[in-house]
Amino acid sequence: DGREKKFVPVVTVKYDYKKLRDITFLKEALDPELYAQVEKQCAEFIEKHPHGKQVQMALPGCKTRAEANIALAEYNKSPYDIDRRKTTFEQIYNILYEAKFSKMKKNSKSAYVASFAKCDSIKRMRMTEIRKYHLQAIVDEYAIKSPSTQKNIMVLFHAIYKHALENDIVEKDYSQFVTASSVQQSKKKVPFSREEVQKLWDNLDNYDFVDSMLIMIYGGMRNEELRNIRKEDVHLEERYIELRGTKTESAERLVPIHKKIVPLIEKRLAGPSEWLFPSNRGKPISYNPFRNRFDKIMEELKLYSHTPHECRHSFATYAKASGLDRVFTKKIMGHKSQDLTDDTYT
């Protein structure tokens, strides 16, 4: 009828004995011990002579008769749960989301959710039907995006296949053969120039969000760390901020408060919310609104199109130019490796 997979292997998974004669009437004629013997012999006979009605199930369809015979032989060699083998990519994602992804920190969870949204072509496919070329096609589709986009998709694939292998849903991990092919290079990070930093100071009263940029530049923190600072984390008299960490164990640290940004933090502490940078609803401001306000200020002040992360690069660059001890710089930024601080950030 024009179907691509015309051949369907069918296997017998059990026998239905419902139509066999009921022997319970013998209970009245036999003593309990003898009846138990008869019942046992009847069960053994049924097991050795399966003549009940066959209950059959179909394996995944195949394109050729040869493929169907191979699939049938593989099943007979090592029978598996056919219903489990019908599990789709989307079903495994939903299982992992409830058990794992939904409990992750916001950025990690968002990466999995965004990657899954890019997998429309395989969402409803059975895992047993997905091949390497299906996965590679999705990754290749986003070659024009940043390398991290492809990387996140591949991380999702690995998680899906890990679960599928552990639960005998598939026998082969095709995700390990997928390769990234991004044609877009990561944008070179450009620190704020001294003139640009001064322009931020000059416009501090004109934009109520400029202080976030200056605090990041003078503190070397990530934007997500800034957005999640509670007022109780700020120790103004001792001049440090206690960061809870968002990426690694070393990200949990104490960041000294530069004397120039003390007035900025004092003003933030006077606000009604428990968070230093709250949203309009009083909760920590999320990334998209934060980034939109950041980009708008860059545009209106006619500055280079910096990213929030370049505030952190600016800190590392100025710290090195000022002769700050390399160990102190590493500790303040929350890096374990000094090479990362020097090679990547300055």
Descriptive account of the structure:
The protein is mainly alpha-helical and about 350 residues long. Helix content is about 45%, strand content about 5%. The strands form two sheets. The chain has a three-stranded antiparallel sheet with strand order 3-4-5. Strands 1-2 form a two-stranded antiparallel ribbon. The protein is elongated. The termini are far apart. The mean pLDDT is about 85.
Summarize, please:
With 346 residues, this protein is mainly α. It has 15 helices and five strands.
Portion of residues within helices: 40-55%
The major β-sheet equals: 3 strands, antiparallel
Gross geometry: elongated
Mean pLDDT level: 86
- Alpha-beta content class: mainly alpha
Question: Nearest-angstrom radius of gyration?
Answer: 32 Å
> Strand order of the main beta sheet, please?
3-4-5
Number of helices: 15
The total beta strand count reads: 5
Amino- and carboxy-terminal Cα gap = 65 Å
Residue share in β-strands: 5-15%
Stretches where pLDDT is under 50 for at least 5 consecutive residues are: none
Q: Could you give the order of the helices and strands?
A: EHEHHHHHHHHHEEEHHHHH
